[in-house]
Amino acid sequence: MVDHYGNFIRVSPSSFDIIGYAPDELVGHLASEFLYPPDLDRTREMMRQSRRGNVTRHFTCRYVHKNGNIITLAWTGMWSEVAQQHFFIGRDITAVKTLETIEEDLAAALEQLQSLSWSHTTLKLADYCWALELTIAIDSLWGAWVLFTGPSNFRTFTDTFALAARIENNEMTWALASLIAAVMIFCGGAATWWQVRPRWAIVLRSFGLIIAGAFWFCLGVSTVAGNPDSLFGMKGVTGGAVAYMIALRLLLFV
User: For residue 48, how many other CB atoms are within 10 A of its CB?
Assistant: First the structure.
């Protein structure tokens, strides 16, 4: 029992087992002396609501055990206007709260484990695809060099190169795109291997592959169209398709 001001009037002997204080150590003292400070304002508000509404209230608050431990108590209380007293029944739910905390920690650990699993899967995927990515990146560097240094390097495919160039009508744009794609693939692959921002590394590789795929697919299609017997054209089409497939697989992990 607690009066209007929050002073203990009567306390069950079980208080000693729960918070370490015998009833005579509590009676005559304010409950706020034993409450865990962060819960004081909320507990006072619950008591005010109980007095105003004259209804049973259910709430939890924490007390400080005599040995310093924090004890969580679940309360059912009612205000008696006639007696001008609060009547409370409380039970210790510290173990329940501890279990809830453990469950939250386990959930956080599981989330972290899933994140690590994602990184492991991504690294395995990098191992499987890196040989193909490396080939595409090197080919893209070669393509950029050919375009930057002039069409004369396509000695065997002069006519077909002219057809490819007419798609954009700008060899330098093709060359720059191919160079950027190769750099993105190399940088993204290195970042993935060293686990530096792995998600962004995967995105970087993916966009590099998409650009390289567009370069080789368009150049390959135009070469095949200009010279059906050209193995270079088929290599371009195949390389572009493979680049798109790897990029799609990588993006599924982002």
Answer: 11
- One domain, residues 152 and 236: yes
Number of domains the chain is built from: 2
Residues contacting 28, CB < 8 A, separation 6+: 7, 8
- What's the CA angle centered on 248, arms 242 and 251, to 5 degrees? 140
pTM: 0.43
**Does residue 244 lie in a domain region?**
yes
Return the residue matching tokens 């017997």. 229
Q: How many CB atoms lie within 10 A of CB 29?
A: 14
Q: How large is the average pLDDT for residues 174-178?
A: 84
Residues 121 and 152 reside in one and the same domain: yes
CA distance 237 to 230: 11
CA distance 238 to 245: 11
